[in-house]
Amino acid sequence: MLNKKSKVGRLLSYLSKGYDITENQAAGKFGIANLSAAQSYLRSKGYAVYRNRKNINGHDVTVYRLGTPSREVVAAGFRALRNNA
Question: Structure pTM?
Answer without folding.
Answer: 0.81
